[in-house]
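Students often ask why inverse folding is considered easier than folding. One informal answer: many sequences map to the same fold, so there is more than one right answer. In these notes we will look at a single instance of the problem. The structure comes first.
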């Protein structure tokens, strides 16, 4: 193919303020802001658990039928260029951001400020912002994007400043729950190409950006770990024609599959295939892989490559104390027939640190019942039904027809309890390796609830309430026994999660159930004109929970400011790549 067919580098369209940014709000009322600030997602809420499970199942079963990437062959195929006025570039990376307002806006506010002073380093606002996936939770709907993602970023940077920063976005699994429809409408537009004060640059759900001094930024869309589609590979084939042995590549991917490959040996295959078949033949070097999906900061280093997870943009904190100290990418037990040679990577830094992460885990006892009242109500209801079934058998009462109709047979309740606990330890949709510890912990958890139900039944039968005429015992159980046993059983679940987390089981649920908003992070990167890349991993120990209208009325100033100033710091000293 001749050079005439190589896509031309396209300038980024200018960003224009939307109608909502034309006037500044006079209060924090949603009608003034144009969106509703949302509370953090209660991840253990029963209906949310069910709906998320259904979405995950549908994505697994019908993802290929909903895959819109094949249709993107008709979209633009430009290669973009980003260079600052001094010949270098400031670049930000943030991921997993569309959750509760306080955490999401705290990070967005820092990203939008004209300059940050962090541990003595003066870091100006980036000219390019990369969103690394999961821009919204729990699902990709129009309302969720408006309230949890676009709205907070609109409030942080209402109008584009003179340097006109640009935004590129990689879709994560939550962005894919609607087949990528909302994501494409928000970030891949043919008109009104702006996202708050950032111009939107990409023409597909993946992108290639030429950076200063031979650096390139490539953003992949692997549709929740599936094969890379043919239009995407064809697009990057054309991009690869511009790469040379002197090129250095930053690869932004939706998930840190180098970490997940320990339990999912095939998780890294798509990235390895892309590097092996698209980039390696050009002689270019992939110096940095960056991802979100796990909501913390962690950096692994190998012979000539850095692997960074930075998913601290707003979603609940994910622990760091269970991260492997050393990993292999690609793993030796991958089934790929032509995998790249295995390289070892060592864990060099993490945020929060190991001890703080472990201490966070102990907060499950206080946070679980109060962050997830629906979950507490659910297990309280199940325990009440189990107690009534046990009480009926223990007291050897057949009861009236109405009582039998409202009672659940004991055998059924016992089976439901044990199976629910076993599947909670390792849901069928979770994939990966199922070890003996999953079964042991799961069944042990179920037996603990059965024992609690037996103790609760004994205590209930000691009270005179059970001897009242029917249906008063059932009413009393719902009003008196249900709330108490719900709180007690939630502590049993909390204890199980803490113990299971120590064995690497239900680690996500241990922290999702707490909804920890603190310990956020993002990356600010600087590419100098001479090609030196410096990474500043910025950490925020405490997010703000109280906001006030900004006294600065200039168009690009943030609408809201924290009452107590945010104090970012570096998660580790700056990292330099050449």
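Output (designed amino acids):
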């Amino acid at each position: 193919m001749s050079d005439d067919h190589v896509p031309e580098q396209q300038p980024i369209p200018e960003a224009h303020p939307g109608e909502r940014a034309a006037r500044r709000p006079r209060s924090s009322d949603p009608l003034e802001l144009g969106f509703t600030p949302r509370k953090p997602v209660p991840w253990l809420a029963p209906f949310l658990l069910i709906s998320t499970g259904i979405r995950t199942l549908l994505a697994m079963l019908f993802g290929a039928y909903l895959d819109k990437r094949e249709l993107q062959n008709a979209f633009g195929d430009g290669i973009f260029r980003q260079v600052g006025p001094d010949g270098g570039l400031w670049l930000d990376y943030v991921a997993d951001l569309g959750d509760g307002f306080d955490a999401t806006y705290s990070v967005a506010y820092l990203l939008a400020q004209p300059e940050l002073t962090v541990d003595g380093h003066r870091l100006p606002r980036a000219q390019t912002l990369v969103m690394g996936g999961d821009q919204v939770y729990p699902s990709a709907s129009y309302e969720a994007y408006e309230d949890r993602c676009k709205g907070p970023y609109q409030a942080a940077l209402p109008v584009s400043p003179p340097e006109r920063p640009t935004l590129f976005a990689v879709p994560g699994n939550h962005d894919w729950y609607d087949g990528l429809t909302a994501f494409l409408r928000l970030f891949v537009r043919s008109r009104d190409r702006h996202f708050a004060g950032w111009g939107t640059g990409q023409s597909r759900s993946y992108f290639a950006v030429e950076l200063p001094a031979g650096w390139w930024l490539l953003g992949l869309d692997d549709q929740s770990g599936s094969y890379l589609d043919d239009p995407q590979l064809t697009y990057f084939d054309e991009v690869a024609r511009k790469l040379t042995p002197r090129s250095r590549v930053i690869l932004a991917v939706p998930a840190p599959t180098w970490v997940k490959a320990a339990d999912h040996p095939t998780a890294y295959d798509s990235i390895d295939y892309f590097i092996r078949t698209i980039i390696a033949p050009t002689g270019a070097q992939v110096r940095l892989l960056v991802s979100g999906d796990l909501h913390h900061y962690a950096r692994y280093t190998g012979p000539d490559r850095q692997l960074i997870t930075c998913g601290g943009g707003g979603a609940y904190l994910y622990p760091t104390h269970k991260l492997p100290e050393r990993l292999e990418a690609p793993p030796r037990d991958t089934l790929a027939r032509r995998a790249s040679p295995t390289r070892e990577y060592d864990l060099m830094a993490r945020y929060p640190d190991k001890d703080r992460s472990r201490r966070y885990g102990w907060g499950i006892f206080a946070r679980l019942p109060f962050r997830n009242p629906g979950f507490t109500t659910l297990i309280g209801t199940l325990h009440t039904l189990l107690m009534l079934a046990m009480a009926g058998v223990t007291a050897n009462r057949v009861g009236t027809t109405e009582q039998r109709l409202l009672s659940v047979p004991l055998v059924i309740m016992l089976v439901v309890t044990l199976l629910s606990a076993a599947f909670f330890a390792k849901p069928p949709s979770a994939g990966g390796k199922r070890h003996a510890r999953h079964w042991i912990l799961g069944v042990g958890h179920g037996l603990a609830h059965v024992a609690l139900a037996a103790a609760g039944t004994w205590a209930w039968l000691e009270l005179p309430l059970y001897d009242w005429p029917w249906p008063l015992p059932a009413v009393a159980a719902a009003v008196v026994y249900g709330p108490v046993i719900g709180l007690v059983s939630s502590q049993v679940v909390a204890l199980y999660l803490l113990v299971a987390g120590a064995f690497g089981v239900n680690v996500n649920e241990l922290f999702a159930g707490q909804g920890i908003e603190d310990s956020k992070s993002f990356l600010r990167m600087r590419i100098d004109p001479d090609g030196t890349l410096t990474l500043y991993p910025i950490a925020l120990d405490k997010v703000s929970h109280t906001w006030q209208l900004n006294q600065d009325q200039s168009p690009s100033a943030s609408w809201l400011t924290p009452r107590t100033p945010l104090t970012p710091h570096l998660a580790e000293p700056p990292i330099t790549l050449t």
